[in-house]
Sequence to fold (1028 residues):
Amino acid sequence: MKNQVLIAAAAAAAIVTAPAITAPVAAESVKVGYMQGFAGGRGIFGRYGFEGFELALDHLGGKFGGMDVELTKKDTQHKPDVGRSVMNEFIKKERVNFVAGITWSNVLAAVWKQAARSKTYLISANAGWSGMAGKNCNPYYFQASWNNDMIPEAMGKLMKKEGIKDVFELSANYQAGKDMLSGFNRQYQAPTKGKILYKLGNNDWQAEISQIRATKPSAIFGFLPGGMGVSFMKQYKAAGLDKTVKLYTVYTVDYGTIRAHGTNAIGSYHTTFWNSDAKTATNQKFIKDYIKKYGKHPSMFSVQGYDAALLIDLGVKGSKGNLKDHKAITTAMRTADIKSPRGKFTYNVNHSPIQNYYKREVIADADGKPKIVVRGMVAEMAKDSHYKKCKMAW
Amino acid sequence: MLGTHGVLGMTLLLLIEQFLNGMQFGVFLFLISAGLTLVLGIMNVVNLAHGSLYMLGAYFASTFFGLTGSLIVSLVLMIPVMLLVGILIELVVLRTLYERDHMDQVLATFGLILFFNELVRIIWGVEAQPLTLPMWLSGNVEILPDAPYPVYRLVIIGVGMAVAAGLFWMITKTRMGMLIRAGASNRPMVGALGINIRFLYTMVFGLGAVFAGLAGLMAAPLQSVESGIGEDMLIFAFVVIVIGGIGSIRGALVASLIIGIFETVGRSILPVLMLEIVDSEAAQTAGPALASMLVYILMAVILFFKPQGLFPARTG
Amino acid sequence: MLSKLKLSILIGSFLILAALPMVAESEMIDEPFYIDLMARVMIFSIAAMSLDFILGYGAMISFGHALYLGLGTYAVGIMAHYELTNGWMQLLVCISGTAFIAFILGLISLRTSGIYFIMITFALAQMFYFLGISLEAFGGDDGLPIDTRSEFFSFFDLNETWNMYYLILGTLVVAALVLWKIINSRFGMVVRGSHSNDARMQAIGFPTFKYRLAAFVIAGVVCGLAGFLLGNLTEFLTPEYMHWFRSGELMIMVMVGGMGTLFGPLFGAFAYLMMEDFLANFTEYWQFYFGPILILLVLFAKQGLWGMLPGKEDISDE
Fold:
């Protein structure tokens, strides 16, 4: 009796330990942390970003650089201190090699230092805080999106090129809003009709519309993110301002919001880094597979998430399996040699993308529904304006 | 220096227009506040979820409009649905809070906000919902020379005024209004008269929900229909009610107009004014900054001098 | 007096907290992550405790208490921005600054009561939130990284995880003891008395307004200290800390821990933050579940975690 128990126990032990003994020593896996705000109305950016990231992982067969992936996803609740806590958990508990995600500049500003200190790679799939392009640039931070002011810079360039005079500036009275205006003016370089800095969360625009109309501009340059953009567009149309004043926006119209904008957005222009109409195989496959997987058209945020994953893949490939070889990883990632839906881009000294920007217009399709179409390139391989402040050695 | 602020220098005509805009915004605020002040004043319940009801109204508007293509049919469909939602909330949550202190009410209804904000995302998805102004309402009329005014905004003024008139009539002339007034000032007494206070409260809350939903429906063609839109409106509504005096319909109407005009005229004048006084980069931001705090400053000042609001409706 | 059970739980928790860094960094456990995690929890414990001091004892339902948390971080952040990194000086500015602002706001808001008080504290905090967003020099809504942590002694570098941790733990203990002492003093009795019957207290001759104002200021200062620590820990300041949602969260922490039990909120903060973390990783729609949980807690577990423990009265008149 006693023997039988012993034998059974030994057999059980053998079964449990067997795989560990017989299987070849498993290659180390890549640990990746994904953090973004997912909750609430503002969670839409996180949603699109992570979907893009997931799709890339699918396309890579679930592996980064041929290594197995251990992915942990955490919600930052859009809060800087929670972001810090999550980053801390990624670094000290999960011991990740890469962190990707982050929607907001303020969360990025709160977490980048931890990542840099612990030599953990951080890839922003959205937040484009100018601080990272300037004095805080470091070998462990990569920008998969843009810098806040690059899209408005492209807009400034566009409106200058098209000779649009008498522009009215409409932006938010907070940091990003002011960055947008300075980015725009850096390229536009002409006097404007006037400007309004509206308050965060504003949603009744009639006062602004009256004021804009009184100055008789020919066009509006507007930074109107999220719901504020939707409500502005509705009221701009209702007030009949669209008949006399053209609308040029940044961070307002995209595939995630176009349905909500509806016909109001028709006739407006915006700039972005993604040529969504590009006929390249990469872009077409990205859009097709995204629609297949998620049942909706990808947005620019999806592209950013997608590329963040590809960048990790690139870094891991470069390390040849030795994830401690930071030099090799950084060097590989700096080539930006990935198959991005946006096409080819390169990295500037500060790890900000040097990339193309495009003009897009919203038109009515055959059914009268809004449709985004690309109207050519505005800026070719544009650099951000902060990189000279970055003293990173390559 | 960016731009030339001289161009923005207010003409008298623009100032009048801004007053009009302010009044219109005020009427809209009244639409949102009316239901809340009813519930707060009569039932003495702090209902943070009023903003969520507003949000639900906007979502239902979007869905019904998408199905029927008519704003009026959507309105007709929305009323019973919101009444039902209101009654359900009252039966399940609010009813248990009457005897609790304000702290409990704040927390429980805060819980409702979180719940509804996610519920709409689960049901309708994370993207903002579509609803564009129907053709027949999208015209403009020239009230002031050179300043076409959206017809739809005039419709909002009309609806707001109708709601105000209807409420006054209900409170002062109908049996239900009489009971409501009596119930607010002496609850056990009305109960002793054999009136079913519980039922009365349920109906009042349902009515409040319908008003919130109506405000949401009216706002939907001009606002973004997305999760969380109720909160900004809730804040305004609370400011209105507290300034007006809790429970006072008249107070809510007056306070709505004050806030609407103050907010609208203030934010268009202040930045210009600041630049007239000191022309500097600092003034460029100080103006809008001050404008965004204006409403709260006004509220603090009024409560400092009149701790019970402008029209204290109930004592104690 | 505290019941024996409660006292032993308090002492036990304190010992666990005191030993945590050593255990977490030991070779066997090797999870230094928990040090930072608990540091954050303790900061919110201090903030929640300070809110409970006026909310639970004085029935002052402040819906804008997170304001002081934000003010504390701004005190550190703004001074560090101008390279004034002396910790003592920062502390002095933080305390006097929050005291001054709490005094002014208290003067305004304590004239009101009931719903009016809730709303005015709320409005005043929102006012500062918008002010913070507009302060371009300090990062506006982007916030501002704090490059250097407060410097107290040359041998006590806050960049060392342990030092930071024990500074927070020390502040927590001192704040808890001081508030406990105040609550049980004559001053505390008046504040508590004005809670149950303000008119009577005034009739006996207590100028309750002054007492309540003093309590309001004390709570503001203690919460400001929590902000001071938060700024140092996160090396970051942002107006977001002052947003009304944060004030709501502080109220939840107080309620979960047990209103009117000074030590309850310490556990309430822990429970809330853990619950948030747990649910958020379980589903993106975590608030969908948390909302009803909160309602159930309010309805059926009003006494909070601390209040559920046996031992009736928390406050003795010694």
Chain C touches chain A at residues 31-33, 36-37, 40, 130, 133-134, 136, 139-145, 230, 234-236, 238, 240-241, 276, 280-281, 284-287 (CB under 8 Å). Confidence is low (pLDDT under 50) at residues 313-318 of chain C. The two ends of chain C are 7 Å apart (CA to CA). Chain C has one domain: 4-308.
